[in-house]
Amino acid sequence: MAGLGVDAAVVAAAPAALKARAGWLAYAAAGARLAHGPRATFDISLDGTPLTCAARSVVVGNAGLLPGGFVLMPDARLDDGHLDVGILAPSSLLDWGRVAYQVLTGGHRDGRQLLSYRARHVEIRADRELPRQVDGEVIRPGRALTVTVRPAALRVRVPG
User: Fold this and answer.
1) Looking at the whole model, is its pTM more than 0.85?
2) What is the second-level CATH architecture of the domain 2-148?
3) How are the residues of the chain apportioned to helix, strand and coil, as percentages rounded to the nearest 5?
């Protein structure tokens, strides 16, 4: 997974010592502190199809699992040749509660607060510099993130 926005801010804000002791609860605590930040305007290209939205974060991945075993993108598959795109767009504390309920219960994802898309090439541009993360590692803040999948590029061999 890679993300631009509050998801990356949460990764950056969760202290390593707390992650080692409390696991996913460290991310939950950081998320609770950062949930009320301003929304950004994102211009997103999904295989060339434009989409503009106001959101807290845009996450792209071919796996949808969060720390603690919670599923953000339930349709994401490592081997399907597609990227799943999750747009977190809650605008209130109640909306965050709805998102948390969806993630914790594996519920429906195409509500107003959590939108799902699929593409092979995703370009994200934000209206301002935001925190960014790739595979749980914080990278330099920026306004853009581009993710492309190369289907069947990795050959896996196992003993017979």
Assistant:
1) no
2) Sandwich (2.60)
3) 25, 40, 35
